[in-house]
Amino acid sequence: MTEPWFGAKKTLTLTLAKRLMATAEQEIAARGWAMYVAISDDSGTPILVASVNGAQLASYEISVKKARAAVHFRRPTKVWEERVRGGAPNVMSLPGVVASEGGMPLVVDGEVVGAVGISGGTGAEDGVIAQAVLDTLKDLA
Questions:
Q1: What confidence score (pLDDT) does residue 4 get?
Q2: Biggest alpha carbon–alpha carbon distance for the chain
Q3: Cβ(99)–Cβ(125) below 8 Å
Q4: Residue 9 falls inside a structural domain
């Protein structure tokens, strides 16, 4: 009898990451916003990062960090924003926390397969684009 040494792990493919990026690009362009989009794998490592409509350079790093935080903590970065606003600034001492909306884990069948991080607009605007990416994933999964 063969031991099941390795389980079946879902992974975010480059093909799917490109499709999710296309959604983000379309949504950003339709609104005339300028943003960075980061799509990461389940370790928080970027698969794709793109500047849409000439986003400010600072948004590159922020988008990557939002995606990484969403994967590592397995929750939207908006959660940390709400905690800080609710009077718990101590959460900012946790390594890797980004307390700004726009980072969301990508979940398929209960497994975190990656994340999206959006930066360049207000937190709420970043969240709109991240949600559009999640909606596309739900339609495809």
A1: 73
A2: 59
A3: no
A4: no
